[in-house]
Specification:
The protein has 235 residues and is an alpha/beta fold. Helices cover 32% and strands 34% of the residues. The strands form four sheets. It has a five-stranded parallel beta sheet with strand order 2-1-3-4-5.
Length: 235
């Protein structure tokens, strides 16, 4: 199941896109869950990162597609944008939000289906990757676990360190530890939970990471952490 949002303020294009998606489902044996929004403001209101693909009209009355995409990117680094537009003037700015591409109105099925096929291949490959959804200031965010190097406990909050930046989220470390243990995370210190795939070595009671960051390795947790690391690396 691939979740797709259509954000379009013209009914005729909403119906066209829905019919194209249904046709693609039949031709390629895919299954889409489709939700329609009539303006950018509608989708960003209480946005949750549940969508795989967003078909986004650039020119809308209240909040245009580019501004909508920028807002969504604040909470969702993974969703795939395809712009639907009557002009290339704005679509060419899509690189700013890492858009997959754009289709010009009137939308031809061939070019739409070719771009959709690229998006579907990308989504299906991405589904092999693991994500967690976390609460952040202003909403929720989907985080790719591969990009997380370590998680740091700070009082009653957690600081998730990723390759693209850091996220502050509420919650106890213990709950996060239990959630991530099946995905190759282990505590090396009461305040640090480390992604074992990012570990490059152990030196002077510190865990060395790919980012060159050094995380404290406590004496009380050293043996268990080393056992977890050995198991992760295959003995």
């Amino acid at each position: 199941m691939i979740n797709i949002a259509i954000v379009e303020d013209e009914d005729q294009y909403v119906e066209t896109l829905k019919s194209y998606l249904l046709r693609y489902e039949t031709e390629h044996e895919e299954h889409f869950r489709i939700q329609v929004f009539s303006d950018g403001l509608d989708i960003i209101s209480d946005y949750t990162p549940d969508y795989d693909i967003i078909l986004l009209d650039i020119q809308m009355k209240h909040l245009n597609g580019m501004k909508t995409a920028e807002k969504i990117r604040e909470f969702d680094e993974e969703v795939t944008f395809i712009f639907i537009t009557s002009s290339t003037q704005f679509a060419l700015e899509g690189y700013l939000v890492d858009a997959l591409g754009y289709v010009l109105k009137p939308v031809p099925y061939l070019s739409f289906s070719q771009l959709l096929k690229k998006a579907v291949l990308k989504i299906n490959k991405k589904k092999e990757v693991h994500y967690i959804t976390v609460d952040v200031d202003g909403g929720t965010m989907r985080v790719n676990l591969e990009s997380v190097s370590y998680i740091e406990s700070q009082l009653h909050q957690l600081l998730i360190h990723t390759e693209k930046g850091n996220h502050v989220v509420p919650g106890p470390m213990k709950r996060m530890e239990e959630t991530l243990k099946p995905y190759g995370f282990s505590k090396c210190h009461h305040a640090y939970l480390v992604n074992l795939s990012h570990v490059t070595g152990i030196l002077n009671n510190h865990v060395l990471l790919l980012s060159t960051k050094q995380i404290p390795l406590s004496r009380t947790r050293k043996k268990l952490f080393m056992d977890c690391l050995t198991d992760y690396l295959g003995g």
